Amino acid sequence: MKPVLFINRNMPEEMVAPLREVYEVDMWPSASGAVPREVLLEKAASAHALWTMISDQIDEEVLDASPNLKIITNMAVGYNNIDVKAAQERGVIVTNTPDVLTETTADLAFALLMATARNLMGAEHALRDGKWTSWEPLGFTGMDVYGATLGIIGMGRIGEAVLRRAKGFDMNVLYHNRNRKSEMEDMYGCRYAVLPDLLAQSDFVLILVPFSEETRGMIGKEQLEQMKKTGILINVARGGIVDEEALFEALQKKRIHAAGLDVFETEPVPLDSPLLTLPNVTVLPHIGSASLPTRLAMMKLNQQALLAWARDEEPNHRVW
Length: 320
Ligand code: DGY
Known about the structure:
Blueprint: E1 4-7, H1 13-20, E2 24-27, H2 37-44, E3 49-52, H3 60-65, E4 71-74, H4 84-89, E5 93-95, H5 102-117, H6 120-128, E6 149-153, H7 157-168, E7 172-176, H8 182-188, E8 191-192, H9 195-201, E9 204-207, H10 221-226, E10 232-235, H11 244-252, E11 258-261, E12 281-283, H12 292-310
Parallel strand pairs: 1-2, 1-3, 3-4, 4-5, 6-7, 6-9, 7-8, 9-10, 10-11, 11-12
This protein binds (2R)-2,3-dihydroxypropanoic acid.
């Protein structure tokens, strides 16, 4: 009898075919819609392996509903959607997909930073809406990126990749991280700063820390008040790191200049979210890692982890 694998989204057949040789594969038929919770619970009941997405909450309820479960492979570098402690207590391996998405996510972070600084989306919409009536001396003006100060909160792999891009724009880079990175400071001339200093001195504040109980609401009213009035907040990590109510207020009252958000507390962000009513917010649908080669590379890591487990080998990128 082959072990049972449930895949939470419709995946390309080229990724699934090798898995069919070693697993009884069951797959949610939609590539875009998340698997409904009740279906996930039902499928998990017989699964030995789960291939999950960041929108699937794998908590104690799911783990308790799946007595045969041995491995969860998550298609993301972040795994805050999985209760890893509970999985470990039950001996369920968890894997993720780091490294292959580093440069792609850094590209997107930088693109969002630039788009927000120059309000590219607002300018494009104005043009399409017939509001480009003449060349205006102060029309469509934004903030400069070149030579500005960038504060990176969370200096991991993606942070370093953004730092390299920022150096090409002659930016002055500050960072805040659990551990100081002296080698990086020497190599790139970036500076460590405690959070209040980073917030006060940066023109752009970029959030890249992993989401956890420790970082939930890390950027709230108090932190937003510490930012420059001309400051721009960019979040490509997880929505829950920022208090969205406080952010709305800071943007509406022009306490800060603008925000670029690829992530939200609730995803997909509800269309009645107050944030979507503001002209000084650039929004994207969580597309940090969304280049075709990178998404395929992430899938490949998931596929290889699943194949390894089925062959009694060590799966790649175990979280524990
Ligand atoms: C991740 O990998 O954690 C991203 O947020 C999704 O690609």
